[in-house]
Amino acid sequence: MEAFLKNIDALEEKTEIFIQKWKEVRIENQQLIERNKKLEEEKGQKNELISEHNKPETSSNKDINADLSQIHEALDHYIERLDACIELLNIELNGK
Fold it and tell me: What pLDDT shows up at residue 38?
């Protein structure tokens, strides 16, 4: 009978240790869950910043396209003037 009581005492002790460890694990798990939520929020905020940074700025693109269009027009105009000058030079050189 005494051996049986010792076994029950040992079982109780092990059960108490198990319960204590189980409670510690639950607390740690809850802390990890909260930490994970915070990290997910931070990740979402950083992803938003990255996506905002990578968005093309439409007004800037329109300005750039307008500037490029003006440059092309100016270049075309200068090319026409150069062609006219070359024609005049050819006429002068050929005596026509």
Answer: 95
